[in-house]
Amino acid sequence: MLPLETNGSEDLMTDLFTYIDGHQDEFVQSLKEWIAIPSDSSDPLLRKELIKMVEITAERIQALGATVELIDMGQEQLNDGQSVPFPKAILAQLGNDPSKATICFYGHVDVQPAKMEDGWITDPYNMTERNENLYGRGATDNKGPVLAWINAVDTYKALNQEIPVNIKFIIEGVEETGSQGLEDLIKGNSSFFSDVDYIVISDNVRLSRKPALTYGTRGDAYFFVEVQSGTKDLHSGTFGGIIHESMRDLVYLLANLVDSSGHILIPGIYDDVSPLTEEERKLYDDIDFDLEEHQNNSGVNTFLYSTKEEILQHLWRYPCLSIHGIEGAFSGYGSKTVIPGKVIGKFSIRLVPDMKIPVVNKQVINHLKSVFAKLKSPNKLVVTLQIGALPWIANVNDLQYEAARNAIRKVTPEMIRDGSTIPLARIFQDLTKKSIMMLPIGGADDGEHSQNEKISRSNYIQGTKIFASFFLELAKLHKDLQMNNDPLTIKTSQQNGS
Ligand SMILES: NCCCC(=O)N[C@@H](Cc1c[nH]cn1)C(=O)O
Ligand SMILES: [Zn+2]
Ligand SMILES: [Zn+2]
Predict the structure, then answer these.
(1) 464 and 332 co-located in one domain
(2) Which of 42, 420, 445 to mutate to test the pocket of ligand 1 (most atoms within 8 A of CB)?
(3) Where Mn(2+) 2 is bound, by residue (predicted)?
(4) CATH number at residue 342
(5) 220 an active-site residue?
């Protein structure tokens, strides 16, 4: 194995990139094989496939030379009283040289559901290349990025080069259904994280065509609001007009959560939102964001706001309330004349700094109770908080952000936040106190969770190169830091002329 020569790192980088370009068809073939496994974590009938997917991933990581531990995550209780095993979680380690930086990569190999009849142009589990895009469920979320990281490590191995950092993996199989058990896994394996310096997640997408680094995500408080009028559904010809309908109550409650301008109607909800400073306001001006393209990607004609700055702020730094659905309501084909006996409204509030989950919970319950009181309805109202995930904000001055900027090379990456939620980001930050960074390789138009999900061939291969080069850049900066030679300090003192 050739030792790491930082002076020759440009040559090494060239060799790594040449190898990646030359082997791109093999990398694409690996992705095709992974996508062929329908590892949909929401479908208990596909649990065997999901378990197989985790096993294949573990074997792949083991083949890199890593030691792999498969952690039992117990049983998932299903609504019908049955249970199925959760897929195991992977903890793996490659290298333990104390002089090197240790990066832990978190990702998932389960996917969202996908069926041809949902509107896929080609079979979601038979990856198809069209116009240099690789279409298939999991292509960008998250099989492509997980494989790109593995490909990057593999490239060092293939070239018989020493990997300049220690690498750990934490890979799970139930991210799409809420990462059950993962917080406990992190708590119960503190020794695994004790020597980790940096945690990297590549489970989101860029904002534009430009490469990006993500330093923040919103959190989410997800509520169920249940209204029950009786023990069963009723015929509206026989009972319509003489009872307090649960659906009428629920629709009224949901209609009083947010107004047509997007303003949340819950008293006090904006009280803890951190004020926009002049310094932060300026950040939005320079961000490369094509509003028209974003609108085209959405399939919606008109947004609530018309400027780039307003749109980004309302995605990243202000809360929003979305109504997701009603369980128990008639939603099928035709014109059934039913009055549902019990309905459950589902809505969630994206949380931003410095909102607090218990405060939001109380505000929501008080508001719904007071709106409900106006109805003078005898029906039963129950409000429950189902998910409480906090927002995450990183320190962009952490060394790994500098290393990633260097690794991206050709352009300065956009520093972005993400309006959605990766609950694990904040959980990692709070439990491990390590530096967290999101390094997305997928594009804004990849269609995560949507029909015809894809990753472009170029993003997948460039992403592999970025990861490979990130290892080298981080190793260099980490070494400088260890020698008490913090390059950021040097830069500052040089700028000061000292
Ligand atoms: N771009 C990454 C998106 C990851 C994602 O979709 N996360 C979910 C998590 C969630 C929040 N509330 C319920 N699930 C999301 O909707 O943001
Ligand atoms: Zn994901
Ligand atoms: Zn997802």
Answers:
(1) no
(2) 420
(3) 108, 141, 203
(4) 3.30.70.360
(5) no
